[in-house]
Amino acid sequence: MKKNTEKRDFKFDKRADKYDDHFEGKLSKRFYSLLYRFTGLSDGDRVLDVGCGTGTILKTFRDFQRIDGHGIDVEPNMLEVARRKCPDMDIRECSCENTPYEDAYFDTLTACMAYHHFPDKEAFEKEALRILKPGGRLYIADPNLPHPIRKLVNFLCRNINGEFFSDKEFRTRFEKQGFTYIGTRKDKYAQLIIFQK
């Protein structure tokens, strides 16, 4: 019998309307806070939130700066919520590895609680480099798990589309593609890794 090696992913679409008030939405607030505190935005910046989910990050950014906001995700029901929250923004259904944007299009890219779900992380890293302007920044907010717990979770989740990294592992991966590592900010179980093109 042939073993099924295709990875499964969590179906966020089933919880789209209740996501923000559910456990996952509340858990994400610490990650959002890191982004809001350390993402330097200016009026007019073109910002792409990769794995934008329900659009919470883009809406909050827009509350503080007049950004040109864009969001992508693969879950159509999550995107419907995002479009209701951010009616004046460009919200699209597409993968993070092959986006429809021109080279050097964005000032800022964010990926919050999304990177560990990306099925082809290396392809995303290359795509992020392509669509960022020279000097543009990439902010990745993902779980900060101690080494033994991270290794155990990665082992247990090997058949689910999810893999977690330390800030040093992030740095190695993205520097290999040509990014410059700026720094990491941490808040308990959350970390924000900052890169520049």
**Which percent range describes the beta-strand content?**
15-25%
- Order of the strands making up the biggest sheet: 3-2-1-4-5-7-6
Distance between the termini: 47 Å
What spatial form do the alpha-carbon principal axes imply? globular
Helical segment tally? Answer: 7
Uncertain parts? 1-9
What does the largest sheet look like? Answer: 7 strands, mixed
Radius of gyration: 16 Å
- By DSSP, the count of extended strands is 7
Give the % helix. 25-40%
In N-to-C order, the SSE pattern is HHEHEHEEHEHHEE
Going by helix content, strand content and strand pairing, the class is alpha/beta
Overview of the molecule:
This protein has 197 residues and is α/β, with parallel strands linked by helices. It contains 7 helices and 7 strands; from the N terminus they run H-H-E-H-E-H-E-E-H-E-H-H-E-E. It has helices at residues 23-27, 29-38, 56-64, 76-85, 121-131, 147-156, 167-177; strands at residues 46-50, 68-73, 90-93, 106-112, 132-143, 180-187, 190-196. Strands 3-2-1-4-5-7-6 form a 7-stranded mixed beta sheet, sandwiched between helices. The longest helix has 11 residues, at 121-131. The model is unreliable at 1-9 (pLDDT under 50).
